[in-house]
């Protein structure tokens, strides 16, 4: 199995198109065509993680955080980033990062937090915009079913819990082929009229290439007439954060103690308690203060995230508890998620969970 095949499996879970514009995801170091001897999954790629990969003969590191975030102008070993990259290259170890692609995935970082905390029926807190597209094309009657089947197979036609969704209308199409054409139907130089089906089908932007390939490979015409539009519809399967409910309401202090224990938090910074039960819970792994208003608007009793600044705690305004449990703490189970996923997708392959400690924050 080569690196490209492994990353293709990972991108079924979290397509790189899901990542935020500021991010740096994908293969950061290495060769797509390199044969993989073993996979090491980690939250951060530090020197001790590369050493661990070398020890266990893993030449592909799957990391949540990208070791290269901004541009590198030199590789002299002066910084920890440069040293990691140099060591990885010297030992022919590839490094692949998922970061906000996995943050935005339906079964990603925040779904794992909900699982650990017992939050049920979670939904996306802040849906990502401009991720739904609509294809309109025109195909002869007898070829319509085959074309739609191919588009469904490519990932088009999914709406929430439903698949194979489309809408068709029948009409008459016309065209006239010039002397350079090779028309499927009709004659060169004559206007041809054909009974056609107009097919309308939506799809996620992440499968655009697959959908277009299916369209061109399965449409009978030499020149395919089609339109693709970006929709404003909310995509309930892609976005930052999640919100769901507890099976039974809990007292605020009891819930915070459970969070501290379940998430192995050394401490929790939180806004003033409201003396009301916790039932609706919003979560966002990593630096999530930007979602405070969204969590409040969604009716959350508590918002669990990290890296909240002093003045941002005031934004709770007594309507919601804001709990900062630590950046590492909110994302620590991500590597477990990835190991479980890869083990199911690639059984009988060397996949290791990194045992290296990478949390840069220590508590006295």
UniProtKB/TrEMBL annotation:
As recorded in UniProt, coiled-coil segments are none
Which UniProt keyword terms apply here?
A: Metal-binding
Q: Does the keyword Signal apply?
A: no
Under which name does UniProt file this protein? GTP cyclohydrolase 1 type 2 homolog
Quaternary arrangement and interactors, per the entry?
Homohexamer.
Entry superkingdom: Bacteria
Q: Name one GO molecular function term.
A: metal ion binding
């Amino acid at each position: 199995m080569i690196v490209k095949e492994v990353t293709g499996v990972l991108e079924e879970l979290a397509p790189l198109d899901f990542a935020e514009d500021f991010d740096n995801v994908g293969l950061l170091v290495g060769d797509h065509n390199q044969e993989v001897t073993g996979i090491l999954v980690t939250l951060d790629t530090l020197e001790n993680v590369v050493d661990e990969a070398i020890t266990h003969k893993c030449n592909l590191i799957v990391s949540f955080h990208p070791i290269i975030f901004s541009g590198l102008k030199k590789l002299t070993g002066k910084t920890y980033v440069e040293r990691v990259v140099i060591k990885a290259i010297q030992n022919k170890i590839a490094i692949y990062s998922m970061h906000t692609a996995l943050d935005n995935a339906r079964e990603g970082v925040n779904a794992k937090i909900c699982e650990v905390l017992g939050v049920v029926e979670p939904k996306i807190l802040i849906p990502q915009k401009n991720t739904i597209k609509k294809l309109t094309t025109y195909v002869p009657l007898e070829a319509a079913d085959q074309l739609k089947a191919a588009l469904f197979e490519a990932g088009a036609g999914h709406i929430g819990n439903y698949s194979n969704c489309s809408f068709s209308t029948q009409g008459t199409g016309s065209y006239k082929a010039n002397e350079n054409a090779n028309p499927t139907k009709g004659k060169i130089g004559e206007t041809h009229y054909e009974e056609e089906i107009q097919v309308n089908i939506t799809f996620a932007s992440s499968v655009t290439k697959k959908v277009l390939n299916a369209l061109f490979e399965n449409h009978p015409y030499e020149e395919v007439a089609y339109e693709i539009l970006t929709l404003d519809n909310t995509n309930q399967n892609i976005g930052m954060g999640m919100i769901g409910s507890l099976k039974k309401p809990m007292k605020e202090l009891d819930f915070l103690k459970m969070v501290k224990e379940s998430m192995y938090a050394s401490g929790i910074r939180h806004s003033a308690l409201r003396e009301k039960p916790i039932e609706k819970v919003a979560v966002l792994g990593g630096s999530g203060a930007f979602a405070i208003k969204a969590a409040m608007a969604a009716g959350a009793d508590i918002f669990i995230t990290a890296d909240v600044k002093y003045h941002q705690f005031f934004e709770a305004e007594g309507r919601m508890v804001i709990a900062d449990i630590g950046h590492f703490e909110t994302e620590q189970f991500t590597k477990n998620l990835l190991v479980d996923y890869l083990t199911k997708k690639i059984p009988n392959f060397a996949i290791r969970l990194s045992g290296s400690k990478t949390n840069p924050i220590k508590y006295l």
